[in-house]
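Technical note accompanying the year-one report. For the benefit of new consortium partners, we illustrate the data format agreed upon in the data management plan: each record pairs a sequence with a structure-token string. No post-processing was applied to the example shown here.
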Amino acid sequence: MSALNPSDFWSPTFDITTRDDGTILMEQIKALPEHLPTLADYLDKWADATPDQPWLARRDDQGDWRKITYGEARTAARQIGSHLLEMGLGPDRPLLILSGNSLEHGLLGLACFYVGIPYAPVSPAYSLVSKDHGKLKDIAALLKPGAVYAEDSDQFAPAIASISSLQMGVIALRGASAVRFGDLLQGDGSAAERARAHVSSDTVVKYLFTSGSTGSPKAVINTNGMICANQAMVRDCYRFLEKRPPVVLDWAPWNHTAAGNKVSYLVLTNGGTYYIDEGKPAPGAFDETLRNLRDVACTWYFNVPVGWDILIEELEADGALAKIFFSQLGMMFYAGAGMPQRTWDRLRAIGRKTTGREVLLATSLGATETAPFALACTDVQDFSGNVGVPSAGLSMKLVPNGGKLEVRLKGPSITAGYYGDPQKTAEAFDGEGYYCMGDALRPADPADFTKGFFFDGRVAENFKLNTGTWVAVGAVRAVLVDAMDGLVRDAVITGENEAELGALLLLSEGAKQMDADQLHTALRDKLRRAAERATGSATCVRRALILRDEPSFDKGEVTEKGSLNQRAMRANNANKIAELYDGNPETLTV
């Protein structure tokens, strides 16, 4: 088995200091590499250098890939940008995008950053899942958009009507009472070229709304300088991106920073191709992803752990698929939740079996406010979860907090704050200008921080037992779900001011089909084995109840990515938690 090619990844060195109060500062000795100041510069670069290279692709109604080249993308950006300016959009009248990933969505984003119009892609769930459109109304009232875009204005009609008092234009690919998207692709784009000259690193590209996992969504300001610095960090870390144009197949929504910033601009700034995946890691939807993976050999592949859980079954069963999948792959990447160790082991094994070498499997740590790339791990690991070390150009501060190390970051890729909310902005930064992520980290090796860190829970989610012992909720949840061996898809950790930990369990689809007695026996056995491996009261879950009700999006219990808001779930299930500790006959105990 051959090793990874060292030239494909960074080899950082660090300056690490410890203050008298226990605070630790850590940053790379090497400076952030030089980079272009705006995304418009990168679009111009590749449109000039490789005008026929595909930039974005999506299957059409016949199942064929419809592709837009860099040359076509710049022409369209100029045409669309000119029309948006004529409609009165500008720095104070942004574009609001309601629908999901599409070629039209991608072109509108390019047009906006090319002429200096901020845009805000928001979760389609705010329009199509929410019953009261409450979050959408708040977003629109804050931004006061000059126009909204929806792929189908009829499908989004109730959502659009809920914010119609703002007197904005409506753009749609199809549907009634809207400016047709096709009409924007007319004219010579001269107005856009004039506006382009005024775009700078300080120009706002977009507003990305936080998922709401720790409160109400906030409009995170994303400037050209912030995003371009972040992409310079990405290229410095994953150096194979510069050896050949990256090829990506991705389903994750662009209203989220992982796909909307990191992955999409990873492609754009390196002259690569982004294939929009209409599949997703959900029952009945993953077949489309598999179809696409048989067509597209990626150089970078991302998925959430549940997606990898599904994919590994297919890779192990289908050697031809595995051969295509690994043929050009630079690395496998996961985020969004902890990866079960069994999945980690199987992915590494199929990578070695197929290629005869180690294929890097890794994760990282970031946030909407960090653009999002911040910490990354490129060393081969035997166990999942190492989020790595800080990127070039970032200063990381680790502050003792409740027995944990709270992480804070400062650098050119960190947001200036939240649009229209100076109070929340002030609260997000400490006195030295570090952004307070609200996450805790645990060093992989306390004697050598260059070995990376493990996520140690959200500071806001953690609580104390009645013994005064702090509980790292995120770490406990990850271990418990892994120990349930596929019976549980998620868990709410309980025990605040109690003597012992408990959990409310959300069953997997397979577990829901099991006989009740058989299921309870299996869950109790897994819970007992997990408790036997625990190291103390702060890690030992001794009781559990099955949670039958699905988490509510409108109540803030679950984000559109599917992540649970632990605090909201505990607050909204207080009666169930009381039953868990007061002897509900269905309680599983060990």
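Partners are asked to follow this layout when depositing records. Residues 188 and 457 are 52 Å apart (CA to CA).
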